[in-house]
Amino acid sequence: MALRGITVVELGGLAPVPFCGMVLADFGAHVVRVDRPGTRSDPSGLARGKRSLVVDLKRPRGAAVLRRLCAQADVLLEPFRPGVMERLQLGPEILQKKNPRLIYGRLSGFGQSGRFSKAAGHDINYLALSGVLSRIGRSGENPYAPLNLLADFGGGGLMCTMGIIMALFERTRSGKGQVIDASMVEGTAYLSSFLWKTQEAGLWDQPRGQNVLDGGAPFYTTYRTADGGFMAVGALEPQFYELLIKGLGLKSDELPNQMSIKDWPEMKKKFADIFAKKTKAEWCQIFDGTDACVTPVLTFEEVIHHGHNKDRGSFITDTEQRVSPRPAPLLSNTPALPSTKRDPFVGEHTEQILKELGFSQKEIIQLKLDNIVEIHKLSVNL
Q: Fewest C-beta atoms under 10 Å: which of 96, 181, 200, 295?
């Protein structure tokens, strides 16, 4: 795989960092997740392909274990607020002094500097401060966050992953690692570059929820069907819009111009009345195979059985029969081969990893007795 031979140390955290680590693991990196003592499970469920080491980083001997681990690693991925790693004597100056090739990934909500840098926050807060949240929502309603996908995973985890890949590539020329300051606020704002670059194009002249791409247009929104399902309509271009009108059983010459904004509310009502008369399956029969840009809104239960997704093998099943999306993008020569094994138990690989680092069995036992590390082996009931 593309990242074969790359070793990543991921310090346990919530959603964005585990996602970043999982992507790296999916594409071949060896990822060791360092969990805190007392942790019982990974709440994010994004541990695929990783190993788990439990060590108390607040204890000097525990921090020494991590320094030993990072001395042999390519990437360190940490989720803490600025200053935490420095207080633990685990900051980049210390770790990169011993391992100049180490890429030090710092993924945080507000970044490593600025007045909000040490403040608590979650996806909705980062989304709000990025400016993007102000553009999302229905007309006349409050802005709303589209789950916790944009800041946590798009502007956070995925942007940090891209930074790591770029740093790995640059290291092939300089031989040196570098520090990655991945701010979820800035990552989300960067994702929204299209919104910024098109402000003069007329796409966002109307209030929130009344523009072409934010639910205001009748040809770019969703509609409820007779069976309680939904269809997504994205017929932006005139030729696609014409096919939408045809599929709905309407005639263009009897309707207002597609881009007549004042007529959009009435057209949305007309389209909604028509969509409500047939089931989702019936609308699929009408629009499948056309360029009307009309597709079913699939539930998680439906998406794995959809013909297109089955054609491409877009979803995978692990040994515990849990379904998840296949890693993307699909590389032709070195595609991701995600692990199908169960997720690791917290501390399952502590002893194994310590031995790989050169700790003797006596040293490992002492670390365990002193509560510096935790070892949780899989028990089998016969």
A: 200
